[in-house]
Amino acid sequence: MSNGESKRVIIIGAGQAGGEAAQRLRQGGFTGDITLIGEEPHPPYQRPPLSKKYLAGELGMDRLLLRPASVYADERVALLLPVRAVWIDRAGKRVRLEGGRELPYDALVLALGARPRPLPIVGADLDGVYLFRTAADVDAIRRRFVAGAKLVVVGAGYIGLEAAAVARTLGLDVTVIETAVRPLARVTSPEIAGFFLDEHARQGVRFVLGAQPALIRGRSHVTGVALADDAEVPADLVIAGIGVTPETTLAQHCGLDLNNGIVTDQQCRTADPAIFAIGDCAARPMTHYDNRLQRLESVHNAIEGAKIVAAAILGHEHAAEAPWFWSDQYDLKLQIAGLFQGYDKVVLRGTPAERAFAAFYYQGPRLIAVDAVNRPGEFLGAKTLIQRGQTIAPETIADTSRTMKELVAAAGA
Amino acid sequence: MPKITYIEHSGKGHVIDAPVGQTVMEAAVKHAVPGIDADCGGACACATCHVYVDEAWLAKTGESSSMEQSMLDFANEVEDNSRLSCQIKVSDALDGLVVRLPKSQH
User: Domains in chain A, ordered, with CATH?
Assistant: First the structure.
């Protein structure tokens, strides 16, 4: 070990961020003890397929696992499942588990994830109303995912729309209720949102936009969702996809700084030099965006955090990568490079009618993000540009007579 | 179970038993073969599972889709035998497959 200090690493949270951190520490040559603590019964698994191929029944849990359960013992990673950590003693550098057992650490990694927000209305606890976060959530949903069943999705974010797409493919009757006047309002531009709205409508999804769910009806099982204007949407099952709250309780109780997530520096280190935070629960300065503090919910962010934290514990540095995301709906692959917040101009390359186009987001002359629909070249090209801090003039990007590869090469010349 | 040989850029080889129906990427990642990152987990979303298919196996591994081709356009040091390993499904016909890994996936 290069810095000769950390002999015992505890990682709280066995999601993708925690699992990758353990793996990258070992691959990087860390020889000390690693303890990985998770509240779910499964070893670390991928969450993105939960709202896609796992929900559709095309992938089983064995293929969701990041790595087979046996690998952890082989690599001397102590996997404590399902186990809850309840207290961090910063002065004594110990983590207390439910039941009272205490474990000492030299370095502690918080990969606590996020909790789905429950619907804040009467009836949210009825049978047939589901949150969407874990494999167990989706296992319960799948039992009711049968053709003809009436599904109401509350919240038109990526998870809600992905679930709606799978449901339509399986022949469910689907209504999406959204408080905002357009879907994906928090995460993309009106141009991309409008395209996905049209696609879902074409596939038979009904949208109730600008509507506030007031109450979930039913005696023991849900029968419908009543809206604030008294209209009612009948339902056999309801999925709440109204976003998540970062899991920060442990950090809060031991006095770490919070700002919509556990605040860290670029090395994912909190104000306590022995404690790091990564993944959905953490907010860190975004290297490619003037170091503004931001919390991201994505696989890439989980992997990035794992790489950064492993490097920091091993005493070297990881060069930050530009953020990226993806969403699969029907035969559409949306790939997102960068962060679009704060854009003042959007330019389309290709047209929505082709079902293959990309929206390039600019802040002044600077390219800050791209949403690419069935345009992987545009996605990867833009990711490269953002990574390098390069741009392509908005006037040029719409010119499809030049390939993305040519444009990227010209930008770097 | 079909055996697949992954050869790292350094020349180090790994022979892995790959379950039929999984992808060439999954078999590598689950056995921690260094050099295949597969950040997206096999959704053909990231182009970090780039491999070179041994010439003798090119016909058996099939054609790449246009989506895969567009992704490969932006991978590093792409050759005619470049593929994204998440898009190659393991079958009995691939028993003995040899793939080589690039220097870097990023």
Answer: 8-115+245-314 (3.50.50.60), 118-242 (3.50.50.60), 331-412 (3.30.390.30)
